[in-house]
User: Fold these one by one.
Assistant:
Number 1:
Amino acid sequence: MPKYLESSGPKRKHQILSREAFDHLLRALDADRDRAGEKYELLRRKLIKFFEWRGALNPQDLADQTLNIVADKLAQGERIQSFGAYCCGVGRMVLLEKSRESSLEDALRAEARIASDATETGLGDVRQDCLEKGLQQLPVENRELILTYYRDDKRAKIETRRALAERLGLPLNALRIRVHRIRAKLEESVRECVERSEQEK
Amino acid sequence: MNNRDKDERLIRYLLGELTEQERAELEQAYFVSDAAFEELSTVEDELIEAYVQAELSPADRERFERGFLTTPRRRERVDFTRRLKAEAAKRSVAGHQSWWQGFVPAFPVPRFAFALAIVATIAVALGIGWRVLRPGPEATEPVQARRTPPPSGSASQPGPQAPLARVAAFVLTPGLTRGTGPAPTLTLPKDTTTVRLKMEHEGEGYAAYRAILKTAEGRTVQSIAGLKPATPGTATCVAELVAKVLTSGDYVLTLSGRAPSGVFEDVADYSFRVVKQ
């Protein structure tokens, strides 16, 4: 069962999505369950990024809250033609509601802005270890690709990436997207590793 | 709208500079189109990278710091990018795995034993290098700029031809604060790719260190975590900087050591001047 369906204790303020509602949502996304799962994950990622790009401090919670609302609406008989557009609309409503509730978040954001001088918080060692582990866990060709891609600066960077794209037989834009996908997975695995380390303390 | 204008619009979105209507249109677009979402995410990666590499103009840097570094999650992303770049540069200097693979022999030597032999050889060479090249306390000139040869003799070398890595190594000792005499000058030869700083300090050594490099004006250039003592139990540690983050000018490097309580305490400040040839 995906982790967002499990109770995560007192931190979750909204209703946990029931198994039945989740299944109903998946069926509405796609008749094939595996493809439906992928579409669900992508929707969730888009929502997380949407909330992040809008400056929310807890984008994952808000994304789950949005998907809960969408699943509820579906269960109530709502017909949804475009899940992307629908989730976008619900997400904006959740954001609006959140911003009405919370001036505390604004204060926190202002404080975070003042403190944004790259000072380490004591998680430096953990993050470094997690990055090294994450790199090791990548398939060799992906690891080599991402390390080569990010190796250089300025002019050398442009040349390296051009040469890399030629070597792989890809347009430069396709290389950018490929590296972005590898990086996104690596970043997610590092984030999860850091969270696990924090929980183990 | 050409690509440049499109990218600028995406950047303005990421920095929170679009009107509400413009944001709504863009959000609708990326929720409906997976390609548009991926493009925006990729532009975000590149914007963060440009910031980390100090490639943004002062005005854009300010826009970024004001409009993007507003949540812990986003600052984590910047930290991740910084670490990834540093790791990539470090592995490039070390000539990392792909170079080593060129030296894996055809005959059956246990891989672990072979790798251990390589590591031991390099460790001895580095140890000798530090002892031979370490200047006296008053020295201010760079001790060595070594060229790391490119991988050679490797039939199947993955990736593009690696440019030569050039390392400039220095030893810093504390107590050289501004106003008490000229700060040491670190002269970086042309094409230096990595600056290796060995920091010595008084008192007991720590199990782990972090270092924060700032300009004389107080702007943070780089924060380096996860540093270990150069030799366990000694009051030294080594940090590596990608040379590109340094421009000619005055800097202060603040070294902190992790106490047994887990809290970092300031250990020493090192002032120095960088001159790039």
Number 2:
Amino acid sequence: MTNTSDKDQLMSLLFEDGTQLVDLKFFRSPTPQEGGVTADDICREIRSAIMQKQAGTAVVSKNFNDDAPKIDVRTLFRT
Amino acid sequence: MAVIRNIYKLIDHFSSFTVLPVDPDDVRDQIISYGIKDEIEFVGVTLDTRIIYGAFHQHIRRDGVYAEPVICADIYYDTSLTRDWRRLVCCKELLHILDHSVSKTASKMECENLVTHLADFTLESPFSREKLQAWTDELMMFHAAAVLFPWDARESLYRDYCQDNTRLDEIIKAVDLPESVVRLVLSEGWPNLYNTLSGGK
């Protein structure tokens, strides 16, 4: 698979059903792979993510489901 | 720009929060209160985290020929991320829902150009629309930090942190954000940055 095809395949996936509106963003890795990250690397990952959702293998939820304990930070160093 | 005004409003809304960590579901609910009707879903997937930690995909779904189109906002994150990173990733991508102007893409070619520019932020393209879109995307991470580590919380912790920065671990645990974000917010220069990010509030 050539690098170009990663981007082409993502675009085909995004626009295959005649969609007129697509917005796409990503959160880049703070510890990127050696040699850097290309647009094709990113397209491959985004396409993979969308396909995992379509295949039903993703964990989908309407909520973030935060389970972190909460604390009023004004009291953090006052006890 | 409406998006910037809404982000200013969002940062201002959370600025008085001292009970932390900020729940991304509360951020979502506040965004919805601004009239956003998108169907929002958090989607945990397996990604190569040497490349990306998450992604935002907004698109239109049609459930039938005569059905109203539904705008869907899918927020992808890697399931192996620790909760602090997942919080930051999801919040940053949530903020993109407010974006109804400059960084909205429409056509296949525009989308392709945007991904290319986002991937190579340093690309030589002065005064291009894509350059501005890429810059807006990078800035969104800092807006997310301003939402998730509210001003009043920072003010409460700053003096103690300055007196004894060995307490950083306790602060990191309380705000549940990556260390690099916490260090930035507790830095001396943050008030000026925050002033810019919040529109001077």
Number 3:
Amino acid sequence: MFESHILSWMTFTPLIGAFLLLLVPGKKVQWVKGIAAGFTLLPLLMSAKLFCAFDRAQAGMQFVERAEWIPGFNIQYYMGTDGISVTMLLLTALLSFLCVLASWNIEKKVKGYFFLFLFLETGMMGVFAALDLFLFYIFWEIMLLPMYFLIGIWGGIRREYAAIKFFIYTLVGSVFMLLGILAIYFYGLNPHTFDMVALAKQGGLLGNSLWLGLPFSKVVFLALFFGFAIKVPMFPFHTWLPDAHVEAPTAVSVILAGVLLKMGVYGVFRICYPFFPDAAKWFAPALAVLAVINIIYGGLCAMNQKDIKKLVAYSSVSHMGYCLLGLAAMTFVGLEGSLLQMFTHGTSTAMLFLLVGVIYDRAHTRGVNDFGGLATQMPVYTFIAMIAFFASMGLPGLSGFISEVFVLIGSFNADAFFLSQGGELVFQSKSIFMICTIFAALGVVITAAYLLWTIQRVFLGPLPEKWNQLQDIQPREMVTLIPLAFLAIGLGIYPMPILNLLHASLTQLTQWVTGL
Amino acid sequence: MGDGAVMSWTQNNVASFLQFWPESLLGLSSMVCLLGSAFAKNKKIFWQFLCALTLLVYGAHSAISLVACSSSAKVLFLGHLRVDGLSYLLQVIFALISLVTLHLSTTHRPSSEHSYTDELPAFLLVLTLGMAMMVSSNSLLMLFLSVEMVSIPSYILVGMKRSDVGSGEAGLKYLLFGAFASGLMLFGISFLFGAVGSVDFSYVAGFLQNTVFDVQTKIFLGVSMIFLIAGLGYKMAIFPSHMWCPDVYQAAPTPITTFLSVGPKVAGFALLIRILSLYVSPVPTPWTLSVQALLSVLAAVTMTIGNVGALAQIKMKRLIAYSSIAHAGYILMGLSALNLDGLQAAVFYFVVYFFMNAGVFYITVWMENHYGSDEIHHFKALAEHSPILMAVMAIFLFSLVGLPPFAGFLGKFYLFAAVVREKLYILAIIGAINTAISLYYYAKILKIAYFSQTPLNQEDQSETLSVGKPNLSMAVMTFLLAFPVTFLILKWKPLLTVVELATKSILF
């Protein structure tokens, strides 16, 4: 019962907790927090079980649950996981639990906060576990509601603006996604289906049909990709991110950067690529260029920020560029790097946001230039911060290095080619990807530049008088950071635990996508 | 006319009357209420009770008939009325919205002294009867008569706050617009009659199946269609006959606004469905494409006007007026697919729309009762004093946007599905963009309620106009309405089955 429904349990345990919270009187703050912690710990324990029980040799879906939901429209309750989603489920479970701990000092409307937070976790888990497009879309949209309130009620000064901007931006993307999903449903397979596995197996959906003279499969591909690109966020749809990340409370920023951004890339992996490999190939060079813009532009923006949190937010834009570049390469190594980057960036950026939260709680400012010499005042904090900064920078021996190297190797060897409608090779070039890779590698230098400069301005130099009273990091904050720090170091030395999970499914995906 | 013909005429009508008893009950009960309330003014509660009881009986009868109905429709009064599944389903909605209106009117505390509620039970019963006949009309004559039967009491109800200048103005505006629309419709009807030579829908449908028309007939038919849709558009509040909507919604007593936003609108759509089925059934006629083009353009313009108009509103009823225009646009979008999917999606949406809109109005009335007006800044006070109610409001608003997991999402999903299936992608894209626009003003309400940092202003701080007893019944009703909106996603098969039952006798 439990074993075979583990994904449903992981998805809906937080929701059960959320409704349990409603029964607790709002004044009993400790109870509320306890329940929230308990009901995020349970999915984490389940994810450990998932990690152990996951069959690494199997490429297909595991822990599958399937039930008819609405037979008339062939909608199913269909959950399952493979190498592509399992790492994201682990990451979501881990970050959700740590974020509940990180939210311990929330004082305003505690019950509402944790209710929405648990609700959010259900949405996130569901997105990664759903294998029916309809179900996927529901989970995808469900996340918006708690997120809107979490930013809008518990956020910073410009939270109203940030919340509505995030909401509208994402909704624009997802309504186009809905149209794309409907087009896939009606014109993808016969009989009509939302079954993502069946649709992915089929591949090359919508054939050569035209719409207003445009190839229909590419139009639908772009409609879906638009929805995902906003979430990633890909240049030029990234403008919601700095606002939302900066205004959101610490834990919500962690979830935004650590999990929500990954959903965009995950959607491309799960839906866009296997469903429309031809459109993906056609779009790959453009995607590579946009990815490089993300890397360079995000990095340059980060370098120019006065606010540490905004700096971290822009660094996410830059780092997600590597995920996109790995996607664009469409080689096994590139895709593997992209997936690994999703995981490692999830851990390192989560650390960075938590660290910013720690210092903001004490100093009530996040200005880069307001600080200096914290290394002497807060040595433990500085030590953990160094791990996070260097992991994010991609220093060899830490997790960010491996994923970025994979992406760069993968994309350096990639081919750009255009096929005509009939499938003949029109144009082929290796140099596009080579040039993109060179620029992306340059991005690594930019990352190093802004992070080192930040370290210098915040941690080194003389300590300003006013920060003499700053406390070093507390045990509760340590608890949220240490698991992530271990992951950053551990995966930097030995990434195989994650790579083993990916391997079989990714091999199959690469075969589907490249047709080899 | 021979003796036999007279006999069969009489027999038919007598037989029809026997099957027409629920509607007759409505009419009879309305007379009793009207006369009774004139002579026994202080027995208001009794007439309200009678009205509610009649509506309950009527709604229950329709619901039972719907579930039990066979695929064949009931044709009454020599073919003037044709009662089928769709009629039954919508009659249930009409009975419900009338009940909701009645209940709201008993709990509503209007700011002016004069109570408009004395004659309301009688009018509601007449309106329900009129709408019931609208959705069952099977001839051009019945169409016109039933539309007027709904219109005239509506004019009166809108202008019922006699001490309020705005209410009178709105009533007059509604009347003038309505009279103009009736004129247009009558014009369309006469052209159609001129071309076809009969008022009977089945005859008209048969005539339209012809493939060859002479030029004059073609012009007649085209003109009649445009004028019919323009006239009906007034009831549905679609472009270009939507202009009355914000003013009338704003000035009418809020319970009446509730009624207008659901009852006549749905009835108008039902009549549109009947007329469309003449033009497109059962095989595509030469008209299909042009009808589709006309409806698509109207749908796109209507929802855009509604959504853009709502952006700047600061009064709840005005905002809902624009939003209801937008929702008419969405429904029209589904209908313009002109396939069975679109028809079912529209009917599905009627049901969902009733729950969402009635729920929103319950909370609006609550807000008016407590804070004296429907300006949306009061929602902040509401969130402070009644957080649960505001949370329910959030559910209704998200449902109106069409966000999962709420019922509005399912409604919109089916509408979009019908449009995508018919490959009207441009229309679908316009609909999608409109959904995103609409999010802004619905979310704005929540923003005001939850996010704003400014403290409550003096008048909102204490619930000055707070009332005691009706609160409980309002809260219960609000939750009853919120329940299906929230949990329909878990199992909407039953509703789908009902919708399929309701639409199976329509040739579309």
